[in-house]
Write a structure and sequence with these properties.
homodimer; 196 residues; alpha+beta; Glutaredoxin; Glutathione S-transferase Yfyf (Class Pi), Chain A, domain 2; 2 domains; four-stranded mixed beta sheet; 7 helices; globular
């Protein structure tokens, strides 16, 4: 397998984490966003959205971090990381959606404004949305070790990355003690790897 | 089953469409957003995000439109609307992600600014993102009747709703003829229902 990433992409980190936890060897191709390599014609043939991550497995190509997570979980993870029964799969999907919405457009875009990698948009708008996401996570994790199905799933991987770096965006994890404890639990999973 | 909606929610429309196409009877509970019924304590117990749709099936409760689509497809749709093999499921997931990103935060938020239901944010920022989404759809649909797996799946349902109303947001579907033709194909599927 080949994984296209940029060195700083949190969405690519999600896929690197699962590949490592599943002990799947893979080749990494690092694109340079400063040279717009993610918008180059050759790369747009793999992903017309012009974003990392992209996962290539033989003749199959998948863009979007959640699609990559679903592919790896189904191909290599049995029922553990993504169950196939209706209720279990939908429970995981809820948290993939939170990661795609409040955590990405809230926590991550707020962090982007704060650390200067996002030029447009309004910090307070993003921050308000991100704080909603943290409150939803806290509500769930107050009485549960993991987000879905009572065990680590791709729901945890998808929500972990931008939550763990949220303090760089001015979000206080100490005010969300169950979230802070869950971040540490994810980091203690066998195969966890650092951001860069 | 019970489905919580607001009369104008496009995300709730996605779930109504699939319920109808699957011929699943359900009770509709219409919340009034002007009276903040989606932020009332009783509703927040069902969905801490304070959003519709919410689907209730016996003692199971699911929030988020993509999670509701996954639940219904897996429970009632066999392999048709969401296959369980790794590649097929990931292919569908890619388009659920597009619907959660470019189509929601681009097309729909742009439309929200245009028709006056979204107070904050910048139209051009949303519109640029939405146009990217339309271009990705057009690229796929130029040579494919459906978004994933060569047949109608929840990928089409998820992407259809905010695309079909995008002209209200100033997006020209005539400039994307394959998208416009696909919108008509979705509307010809047995069980299709109108927005309101």
């Amino acid at each position: 397998m080949k994984l296209y990433i940029t060195s700083t992409s949190g969405n690519a980190w999600k896929v690197r984490l699962l590949l490592s936890m599943l002990k799947q060897p893979f080749e990494t191709i690092v694109l340079d966003p400063d040279r717009k390599e993610h918008k180059a014609p050759e790369f747009l043939k793999l992903n017309p959205r012009g974003q990392v991550p992209v996962l290539v497995d033989g003749d199959k190509v998948f863009w979007d971090s959640t699609a990559c997570l679903v592919y790896l979980a189904r191909k290599l993870g049995g029922e553990q990381w993504l169950p196939t029964d209706a209720a279990g799969m939908a429970e995981v999907q809820q948290w993939l959606a939170l990661s795609n919405n409040e955590l990405h457009y809230g926590l991550q875009w707020g962090r982007g404004k704060k650390i200067g990698i996002r030029a447009i948009g309004d910090y307070e708008e993003y921050a308000m949305y991100g704080r909603n996401g943290l409150a939803v996570l806290e509500g769930r994790l107050k009485n549960n070790e993991w987000l879905a199905c009572g065990r680590p799933t791709i729901a945890d991987i998808a929500c972990y990355c931008y939550t763990s770096v949220a303090p760089e965006g001015g979000f206080d994890l100490a005010a969300h003690p169950s979230v802070a404890a869950w971040v540490k639990r994810v980091e203690a999973l066998p195969g966890w790897v650092k951001r860069v």
